[in-house]
Design brief:
Blueprint: E1 11-16, E2 23-27, H1 29-38, H2 41-52, H3 68-74, H4 84-96, H5 99-117, E3 126-132, H6 138-141, E4 147-150, E5 156-161, H7 165-169, H8 171-184, H9 199-217, H10 219-222, H11 234-241, H12 252-256, H13 259-264, H14 276-292, H15 304-315
Parallel strand pairs: 2-3, 3-5
Antiparallel strand pairs: 1-2, 4-5
Length: 316
C-alpha cells in the first residue's frame, strides 16, 4: 500500500515493498526546510507546521491539541529566528551526502532482513522525517553529540541531527535503530503500557535496536554514540541494573540517557553518565543473543524480562 501525501507536500520517495503491503514514505524535508529558512521570520512557524503535518499522528497519545512547532523546538529542532545561513549550509552537507536517499535505502534493506527473520510480521506504513537540529542547543550539540531519534510510536520515525561527520557516516545505522523500535512496538508486538512499563524494557529496547543496527552495519557504525564510552564500565552496569524495575516514564530519562539529560527535562538525577542505559542495554542484549543463538532480528519481540534474566545468569 502506498501512502498518499497531502497535495502541498513533495516526497523524496514513495516506496512500496514487494515483500509486504507496507509503505515507507521519506518526506522531502530538504526542500521543506530550505523553504522555511528562506521565508520571512514571521512566516516560518506556519511553514514549519505545514512541513511537520505528516507526523502529527506521532503525538496521538498526547492529551489535547499538540503544537507541532513547540514539539519541534522541544526536540532540539533547527531554530526559526537565527543561524539561517549556518543551517542552510548544513542542509547542503546532508544533500551532498545523499542523506534522504540513504535513509530510504537503509530502511528498505533493513525491513527485508527483518521480514526474513520474522515471517508473518505485520509492519505498519511508516512516515519518516529527517530534520536538522539546533546548532545553538548546548545539550544537543554537546552531550547528545548532535543526534536524536524517535521511532517508538508505530508508523513514524523522526531523526533530528547536525551533520557532524560521525553522524553523516552513521545515518543508515541511526535510522535502522529507530525502525527496530517502530516494529517492536507496532500492533502485534510488544505493548508499551505507560502504567506498567519499566526502565528495563526501555534499556533492553535500546540494546536490541543497537544490536539490529550492528547486525546490518557493523560495530563501528551500529552503536548509538552516546553509549559507547560506557560499554565496558562495570560500575555503570551495576548501577543501571539496580533501576531496571523502576516504573514511571518521568524517571526513565535519568536511567537511560543519564543525569545531564534528566536535569534538562526536569527529572531527578540518579548518578549516571550520558548514555548509560544504551551501554547497559547493549551488554544485556548481547549476552542474551549469545546464550540463545539468535540474531537481533530474530529477537525483535523477545520479552525484556527474559532478556534481562538470561543476561544476568550469564554473569553470575
Amino acid at each position: 500500500m502506498l501512502l498518499t501525501a497531502p497535495a502541498e507536500l513533495t516526497l523524496t520517495q514513495r516506496q512500496c515493498l514487494a515483500s509486504t503491503d507496507m509503505a515507507i514514505t521519506v518526506v522531502d524535508t530538504l526542500s521543506g526546510m530550505r523553504r522555511v529558512l528562506r521565508a520571512p521570520v514571521e512566516e516560518r512557524g506556519d511553514a514549519l507546521r505545514s512541513m511537520l503535518e505528516p507526523i502529527s499522528g506521532m503525538y496521538r497519545y498526547f492529551p489535547g491539541e499538540v503544537d507541532l512547532v513547540a514539539m519541534h523546538q522541544m526536540a532540539s529542532g533547527f531554530p526559526l529566528d537565527r543561524d539561517e545561513e549556518r543551517c542552510l549550509d548544513a542542509l547542503d552537507t546532508l544533500a551532498e551526502a545523499g542523506a534522504w536517499e540513504r535513509v530510504r535505502d537503509a530502511l528498505n534493506t533493513a525491513l527485508d532482513v527483518q521480514l526474513a527473520a520474522t515471517p508473518g510480521l505485520v509492519a505498519p506504513d511508516i512516515t519518516v522525517l529527517l530534520m536538522l537540529g539546533d546548532p545553538g542547543d548546548a545539550l544537543f550539540m554537546g552531550p547528545s553529540l548532535g543526534v536524536t531519534g524517535n521511532g517508538g510510536i508505530s508508523g513514524y520515525i523522526l531523526i533530528t541531527l547536525w551533520p557532524f561527520p560521525e553522524n553523516v557516516a552513521r545515518l543508515e545505522a541511526t535510522v535502522v535503530h529507530e525502525l527496530n523500535h517502530n516494529l517492536r512496538y507496532s500492533p502485534g508486538g510488544v505493548v508499551w503500557d505507560p502504567m506498567t512499563v519499566t526502565v528495563g524494557e526501555h534499556v533492553v529496547s535500546e540494546g536490541l535496536a543497537d544490536a539490529f543496527a550492528r547486525q546490518l552495519h557493523g560495530d563501528e557504525l551500529g552503536y548509538t554514540r552516546i553509549g559507547v564510552p560506557h560499554l565496558h564500565d562495570d560500575a555503570v552496569f551495576a548501577k543501571v541494573v539496580t533501576g531496571l524495575d523502576v516504573t514511571g516514564m518521568q524517571n526513565f530519562t535519568a536511567w537511560v540517557h543519564g543525569d545531564t539529560h534528566a536535569e534538562r527535562y526536569g527529572a531527578t538525577p540518579v548518578g549516571l553518565p550520558t548514555g548509560a542505559g544504551y551501554a547497559v542495554g547493549n551488554r544485556l542484549v548481547d549476552a542474551y543473543l549469545a546464550a540463545t543463538g539468535q540474531t537481533a532480528a530474530q529477537a525483535l519481540h523477545a520479552d525484556s524480562a527474559e532478556i534481562i534474566a538470561t543476561a544476568l545468569r550469564q554473569r553470575s
